[in-house]
Write a structure and sequence with these properties.
The chain is an alpha+beta fold and about 240 residues long. Helix content is about 35%, strand content about 10%. The protein is built from 7 helices and 8 strands; from the N terminus they run E-E-H-E-E-E-H-H-H-H-H-E-E-H-E. The chain has helices spanning about 30-35, 80-90, 100-105, 115-130, 135-150, 155-175, 205-210; strands spanning about 20, 25, 55, 60-65, 75, 180-185, 200-205, 235. The strands form 3 sheets. A 3-stranded antiparallel beta sheet has the order 3-4-5. Helix 2 (about 80-90) packs parallel to helix 4, helix 4 runs antiparallel to helix 5 (about 135-150) and helix 5 (about 135-150) packs antiparallel against helix 6 (about 155-175). The longest helix has 18 residues, at about 115-130. The termini are far apart.
């Protein structure tokens, strides 16, 4: 049964550790208000920040997120803030039942950072979706992983290949396609030069799965805009419908 904070009477988040102020166990928000601390260096702050604020001790930027329910404080590091943004994009996929708090708790003694915890959470969500053959939702995780890696200057080609493999599974799962159904490669107006010759090329899903024309070799979709995802895709050929 949910517990109410004795100070503010709000419901305390299930799965969160207890916070003690004086001789009472209170909610996260009341604890932060009574003892605001920098999430980087642990220095006590003169008051609870209302928005972004720089720590006077370590000089790092503190981010305030009062609506998130995955960290034991409303005062977050930059990495914790990014994880909050990522979590919002994943936690609702396919009625997933994986608990971020349980994943974080299981890794708490292993020295994993916030981003490590998130990707382990995302991996478990992906496995859960795969068991239920919810390939459409799996695409969102692969896309997010690509964007994350590219924004940090890492090669994401292997994840992008996984994304397009999942896209073929989505077509097969639609009920209107088989391995011998013809698909056509569609490219965005700003597709990279190596992909343009592939535009409108046709093949069966079996051939696409075997030869993997997407992504093209040396895909540079992310080079100028790391936040922009590859615009290429497979579509069932119009004259193959029915």
């Amino acid at each position: 049964m949910p517990r109410a904070c004795p100070t503010c009477k709000s419901e305390m988040v299930a799965g969160m550790p207890g916070f003690v102020v004086g001789d009472q166990e209170v909610c996260r928000e009341c604890h932060d208000k009574a003892h605001p601390r920098c999430p980087y260096c642990g220095a006590e702050l003169p008051k609870l920040p209302g928005a972004r604020s720089k720590c006077r001790t370590c000089g790092k930027m503190i981010h305030v997120r009062t609506s998130q329910q995955i960290w034991p404080s409303t005062l977050l590091t930059e990495e914790q803030k990014v994880v909050c943004d990522y979590y919002r994009r994943v936690h609702h996929l396919g009625d997933n039942t994986v608990s971020f708090l349980e994943v974080a708790s299981s890794l708490s003694s292993s020295g994993y950072g916030p981003m490590d915890v998130f990707w382990e959470y995302a991996r478990r969500v992906e496995l859960d979706l795969a068991k239920r053959k919810n390939y459409d939702s799996m695409r969102w995780i692969a896309e997010l992983e690509c964007l994350h890696m590219m924004s940090r200057g890492h090669d994401a080609s292997h994840v992008l290949r996984k994304y397009f493999d999942i896209e073929l599974r989505v077509l097969l799962d639609s009920g209107s396609c088989t391995m011998d159904t013809t698909v056509e490669i569609q490219c965005g107006n700003d597709a990279c030069s190596d992909t343009i010759p592939l535009a409108k090329r046709r093949m069966t899903i079996r051939q696409a799965a075997r030869h993997k024309p997407l992504p093209c070799e040396g895909c540079v979709c992310f080079d100028d805009q790391p936040s922009r995802f590859c615009q290429c895709r497979y579509e069932q050929a119009w004259d193959d419908f029915g």
